[in-house]
Amino acid sequence: AAVQLPFELGPLQQPDSSSPVANPYRQLPWGDVNIISTTDTHGWLMGHQRQEAGFSGDWGDVYSFVARMKDEARRRGVDLLLVDSGDRVDGNGLVDGEPAGHVKGWTAMSYFAEMPYDVITTGNHELYKYPVAVATYNKLAKHYGERYVTSNVNLTLNDQRGKQRTVSLGNKYRKFKTEQGRTVTAFGPLFDFKAHAAGIDVQAPHEMVKEPWFLDAIAEEPSFFLLVGHMSIRKEPDSEWSTIVKAIREVHPHTPITVFGGHHHIRDCVREDSNSMSLAAGRYMETVGWMSIKGIDSADRSNLEFHRRYLDQNRNTYKYHAGDDFDTKKGQSITKSLTQTAKDFNLTLQFGVAPQSYYLYRHPHTSDKSILKLLTDKVLPLLVTRPDRPYPSLTILNSGSIRFDIFKGPFTRNDQWIILPFTNSFEYIPSVPRSVAAKLLPYLNLVGEHHLASLTSTTTTTSSDDEPLPQLSIAHPHAQAASVELLYRRRLAEEYAASSSTSTGEEKLTPGYVTADKCSELGDDTLHRPIPAVWQPTFVSTAFPPPPPSTNASSSSSSSSEEEEDKIDIVFFDFIQPDILSALNALQKTKTFTEGDVSLFVGSLTANTLMQSYAEREWS
Ligand SMILES: O=c1ccn([C@@H]2O[C@H](COP(=O)(O)O)[C@@H](O)[C@H]2O)c(=O)[nH]1
Fold first, then answer.
1. Interface confidence (ipTM) of the complex
2. Helical axes 106-113 vs 329-344, angle rounded to 10°
3. Residue 214 is assigned to a structural domain of this protein
């Protein structure tokens, strides 16, 4: 049984002394307009509390930093705005471990609401579950009022008498004046997300820009446009920033446009043209983004200067830029309250002690240090079994369902949510011919995970270097997936490969991000040596061929014919049911597999309880 630990989570500002926190190495580039951005926080408001001191600030620290920088902006007579690009749930006990009675993220929304955002929008994760979307509407959108901007998401609500009405999740756009009197027109688009719950509607951005309300909103020229949306800033297949910028450019060829994207979890910067800059501020409270624009009030648009920085999210960063005594009373009380919430949510409950660290990106998935190997070699074969089944099973995981590393040491309830935040259940398709099962994993990895977005957009499908993305030779509706995790891993691996071959003397630096974006000068606020990262597959599986079942099932035929031995049960998370069905139907033509062939494999386990069970059995 689980035991209560004598340690407390947060407000540990520097949790692991063996991992020193480096300082930034230069001042921030201030402009006439400065914008701080957050994105893809996924519930990490307590910061990173194990081993990663570089990301160990918490929401209270961020609050104080923003408050001090706002004071500094006033002292300088410039503007400082704050924006967030969405994805606040899925990935941390603080959101996913919400006690019964409220939907996930309910309490964390109150912490979010403390932050003086000028524009805040939704991500796709707020829209996977209808009750989460409704809570977002009732709590966060209502709190922020006109500052909660969602330009292309509608929600259908049922009133008490069962009558339906469809509303925009947030304000479609926001026009406002900054403290220094500049005019801003802001939009909050989400990529053309298709995997949302029923009762939600997302309009493709390329359709949104044709709407009369959009054309009316852009007619008048502001000092600058502020686009804050949940969409990769690269020209990936699910991104349509170029379409939106182009629509604005048709009316205002030279007006400054600032873009704050997200979704792909990377630090990134691109320029759509010389009068715009697009920034993405990473993920998981690791990064605070900074953009500044100089020359914004000049009629001569050829002198505009854009700068960007990626700040490591820790107290050293905040002290360096905002002063040693940057703490505010309110920031400290947020920190304190987070500690209490962690206790209330029982997040310190220890399920076991991990004997070593297991990583998601640092090692190949075949390495003993890989979390994917831990899951497929040990966790799944031990726990996801059915002694009543006469056939062996092959369990397939979408690696996107696993979100983070396991660090050596206590494995707590919070870690469980960090690793596997989704409530996906284990389903199976029984009795699949062995020859078909053998081809399943390679096939799935060839076509990739099903798209979250429709790819009918007008955006060209190009990679970050404007090279065509590798095309798959087979015609398949799922081909050429661009999953977030895949892109994130590809980018980390590229950055690691590039920097480790060129840098010298880097061994003195602490590990961290070494960002290779598309904007001039270095963007990272603190110098690091890169954390190793290698390519990982989109799908992994337990061993093939699977060992024979240690079955209690009475074989349906006492002679146990060859034919029967030749069958395998295919087990998978419900989230990838469409991928499995479509792969099976592509790999054989004898039978058409449908939803009717799918049943629950184990009722007692879901993605988010898997590691608890394993830690209690093997690590306690
Ligand atoms: O129920 C779910 C929902 C999502 N996933 C995985 O997450 C990614 C999408 O997350 P992003 O943060 O937007 O990348 C999706 O591709 C799945 O791999 C899941 O496993 N279960």
1. 0.98
2. 180
3. yes
